[in-house]
Hints:
Elements: H1 2-9, H2 16-28, H3 33-45, H4 50-63, E1 75-79, H5 90-100, E2 105-109, H6 119-125, H7 134-144, E3 146-150, H8 151-154, H9 156-168, H10 173-177, E4 188-192, H11 196-207, E5 212-218, E6 231-235
Parallel strand pairs: 1-4, 2-3, 4-5
Antiparallel strand pairs: 5-6
Amino acid sequence: xxxxxxxxxxxxxxxxxxxxxxxxxxxxxxxxxxxxxxxxxxxxxxxxxxxxxxxxxxxxxxxxxxxxxxxxxxxxxxxxxxxxxxxxxxxxxxxxxxxxxxxxxxxxxxxxxxxxxxxxxxxxxxxxxxxxxxxxxxxxxxxxxxxxxxxxxxxxxxxxxxxxxxxxxxxxxxxxxxxxxxxxxxxxxxxxxxxxxxxxxxxxxxxxxxxxxxxxxxxxxxxxxxxxxxxxxxxxxx
Length: 238
């Protein structure tokens, strides 16, 4: 980690393979919390590159516990968080609205790190027991049109950095990674981002895959469409 930190502090970027290796080692427990916090802090002071984000994503998808929920053409609806607007869990509420309309939803989420309540806090508060059991998730999809995938059950790296993220209590590149690493890899995604720069970064990432996506940002800083401003929208066709 020392050499990586020296490189980053010298204003150099990580190659995709280097970024992947750092997160793999983080999940293995090779770094202590101070080293993890220092690494995360670098990306609070400068923008993440496309290669770095892709490398981090490679690591998380490689290490994930895959789950097969069947061929149901499901959608994931998620916001990056970090817009500091103190709104309620809008993307989670939208998931239930869409499921209630008869469409299949495979929602991926975690406990709040930059907010009072993340999707997992809300879901757990209402009595849902998190599970990684594929059959249980399929039953949920069949009966309710929605299955909830608690991130820490499916990826060791997200669990490893949880305490550090909570202690820092600011948005980090892990806010960006959450929407990219749904372990069920649904074919459709609606994603809210807190600024246009991040929207463009996701747009470049998604264009390299086959996900049917829409990315939205309200120009007054919300990571969803708001009633208080016009919004920008990216999707597969431009």
